[in-house]
Amino acid sequence: MSSAASSLTRGQRTLLLVVALLAMPFLVAFALYWIEWRPAKLANHGQLIEPPQPLPESGLLHADGRPLPTEELRRKWTLIVVNRGECGEACQRDLQQIRQVQVALNKEMMRLRRVLLGDSPSTLRADTGLPTIRAAYPDLLLAAPVEGDGGQPLRALLDGQAYRFYVVDPLGNVMLRYPADAEMVGMLKDLERLLKYSWVG
pTM of the full predicted structure? Predict the structure, then answer.
């Protein structure tokens, strides 16, 4: 009788141990959530925009002044470089670097579009280096916000004073941004991860 009771106790202990081991991850997760703990370093290298901000439906122009509907920026991932004034040495270096980032994506490179966003179409047209840029990067899209209040929502969203590079998803949402001194290796890793797990674009 005592042997049966002892055996039952050992079985209960084993069962309790198994239940405790299974429940442990949930208890730890709940505790971390309760104290609002966040990891010190996130997986992405750029700053995640939460929630992602949709590009305005209008207010964007090609360099020649033709309207550029936001719809044309969908269906692909888009990497935007925001530039103030003429595209000088630093700007052209950035264009070369983001081109290298795109090429480094290998078979996924066609899923990414690159855009140089200037102050205004007139500023882009006045840029003395524009013919050189067009020749060096024929697949680069040149664009700018419309002048005046119509382009203000886009300027407010893509604040080039604080950030220089922006990643837009295929649905037209701005989701990542990088400062002017961003490491291109980190940007490449972010894009590789996004393209790997994305079902769109």
Answer: 0.76
